[in-house]
Amino acid sequence: MTDYARTAQPFGRTVGAEIARQAQQHAHPAVAPRRDEAALATLLRARQRGDAQRQEPWVRRAPEPPRKPPHADVVEQLAARLVPPSLWAMVEPLIPPAKVRRQGGGRGRVSDRALFTAIVFVLSSGCAWRHLPATFGVTVPTAHRRFQEWTDIGLWLRLRRVAAENDSPEAEWLRLLLDAAERRAGGV
């Protein structure tokens, strides 16, 4: 018999397995707190290093404030050019107030100004409703539905009367938009 055969352990009785078995048999209750102390020491060192990636699992981070979409500034500038405050002052009184909905689910109503701006974008660019950029914060069905509602109640005709009474550059812009709205609505 060779030296190797005499010193070889039977299967399942390797040196590592034997050490693990003995450690389980002789486990001391003080082992767990030592592990906790080691984990806390590791966390403390990470905090002292300023390692932001490692954080205590029991500490929750405060939610981050909502971020603007990447092109939000461009959309705000475009909205300010499409519907300047003086134009909005002419339009706002003619828009009917929102119907009061009973309490329940659903989303809140989108502001009339955001919707009017989105509609003006579609009218002035000549794009299809489905190409309305999402960065306006208005969904395509909502913009189209509100355009149809405003067409049905005669908003564009009332705006035409207001534009005829006014001689400002905004009134001229409004007349051009109303021509486009008439074409979109099928000859209001």
TrEMBL record:
Organism (species): Saccharothrix australiensis
Which stretch is the leader sequence? none
Q: Where is the composition biased (Basic and acidic residues)?
A: 48-71
- InterPro entries for this protein: IS402-like_dom (IPR025161), Transposase_6_like (IPR052909)
Query: For the region Disordered, what residue ranges are annotated?
Result: 47-71
The protein, known as: Putative transposase of IS4/5 family DUF4096
PANTHER family from the entry? BLL5188 PROTEIN, TIS1421-TRANSPOSASE PROTEIN A
**Ranges of residues in domain Insertion element IS402-like:** 87-159
